[in-house]
Design brief:
The complex is a heterodimer.
Chain A (H helix, E strand, L loop, with lengths): L1 H20 L6 H16 L4 H12 L1 H4 L1 H5 L5 H6 L1 H45 L1
Helix pairs in contact in A: 1-2, 1-3
Chain B lengths: L6 H9 L2 H21 L8 H15 L4 H21 L1 H10 L4 H25 L4 H7 L6 H11 L3 H25 L5 H23 L1 H33 L2
Helix pairs in contact in B: 2-3, 2-4, 5-11, 6-7, 6-10, 6-11, 7-9, 8-9, 8-11, 9-10, 10-11
């Protein structure tokens, strides 16, 4: 477990350095993520320590944003005034996001299926 | 001779220690998580929401200022960056599976998160929300750790962004099955990807419990969407904000 954490901290550190000196527009951890992803793609596998730590982070990701979310206390009056706007924006946006993402993929899928069928039909004809 | 220490002094000592904020944060999350498991992972019983509400109640009752609480809780907060880096693993696992679909997924994620941002910001603005709230709508479609990093760079409140993200996750997880059925999408990988974009971490847990393939695609989509937004959003906003009017 420790080895997994150490790996993550090192990639994070590298990302922070890169962000500080070369790419200030992108958060350091995101650069760390990209570096680690490149490393994993080159290496072709995830070591078990890293996989374990990454999995527990994914499972309890929510815990990590509790401290920041508690700051909502400071915004309660503002949120109450605009409750309807916030609620509508969030609900409509979430419905559109999920629907549109799914429809785009479905359209792609439909076309690639059609193309695929076309190719197999052509192949079939050639065999005849 | 035996000087008794009044309770209030013990209290002053305890509440000045970072340990106290850590205990509240972790214990309330533990309570939330137990309830969540007990409720058969019903998205309405969101462990994060429960933990946030209980922690708010606790520090309000104890009259502890938020800054004081955060001094201790920042140790948990710090790990957000590390958790972001760890998202590389699910993205990589998704990559291995999706041979040939990467372009489709990339386009779908870009379109999906654009729709998400534009709709949320436009509606909030149209309904007259405050600038703070409108600003925090930009990053809410991204998983919270990355969203907060983006929020800091856009100079909007990371707190409101995190809160909106948590609410989005709950809404997305509850609504996703109905939305996906009504647009007649039944392939697990498409359902998973859409959930990863729309419902974040909570949606992923749900997706894994329904279908393993959906879970893998959801994790990958959440991470990848975060990366695309973290790189794209600041660029788009810097160049387009003056022209868009919001």
């Amino acid at each position: 477990m420790i080895s997994g954490l150490v790996q993550l901290f090192l990639w994070q550190g590298l990302g922070e350095l890169l962000s500080k000196f070369f790419l200030p527009g992108i958060p350091g951890p995101v650069l760390g993520l990209l570096l680690l992803l490149t490393f994993l793609c080159l290496k072709g596998q995830v070591n078990s320590d890293l996989a374990m730590v990454a999995d527990s982070f994914r499972q309890h990701l929510g815990l990590l944003f509790v401290p920041a979310s508690v700051g909502v206390l400071l915004f309660l009056p503002e949120l109450q005034t605009h409750a309807l706007a916030v609620g509508t924006a969030l609900v409509v946006s979430v419905i559109l996001t999920i629907a549109v993402t799914a429809i785009v993929l479905k359209v792609f899928w439909y076309f690639s299926l059609k193309r695929h069928k076309h190719i197999t039909i052509n192949k079939g004809q050639r065999h005849e | 001779m035996n000087k008794r220490i009044p309770i209030s002094e013990i209290w002053v000592y305890l509440s000045g220690d970072p340990l106290f904020a850590l205990i509240i944060t972790l214990a309330t999350y533990q309570i939330g998580y137990l309830l969540y498991v007990r409720a058969k992972r019903n998205p309405l019983v969101n462990p994060v929401a429960i933990s946030v509400v209980l922690t708010c109640l606790a520090i309000a009752l104890l009259d502890m200022p938020y800054e004081k609480y955060f001094e201790g809780a920042q140790f948990v907060h710090f790990l957000l960056g590390t958790a972001t880096v760890a998202l590389a693993v699910p993205i990589y696992n998704g990559f291995k599976r999706m041979q040939g679909k990467i372009f489709h997924i990339w386009v779908a994620l870009t379109v999906g998160s654009t729709v998400s941002i534009v709709s949320a910001v436009a509606i909030a603005k149209w309904m007259g929300a405050s600038d703070n709230i409108i600003g925090s709508m930009y990053a809410k479609s991204v998983t919270a750790p990355i969203a907060m990093g983006i929020a800091e760079r856009l100079n909007v409140s990371p707190t409101l962004t995190a809160v909106f993200t948590v609410i989005t996750g709950m809404l997305g997880t509850i609504l996703a099955p109905y939305i996906l059925n009504s647009v007649k999408v039944h392939q697990w990988w498409i359902r998973g990807t859409a959930i990863g974009v729309g419902a974040h971490g909570l949606g992923i847990t749900r997706a894994f419990s329904v279908n393993e393939e959906a879970g893998v695609y959801a994790s990958m989509a959440m991470g990848l969407n975060g990366v695309i937004s973290a790189i794209g959003l600041p660029i788009v906003l810097t160049y387009l904000r003056p022209h868009l009017g919001f």
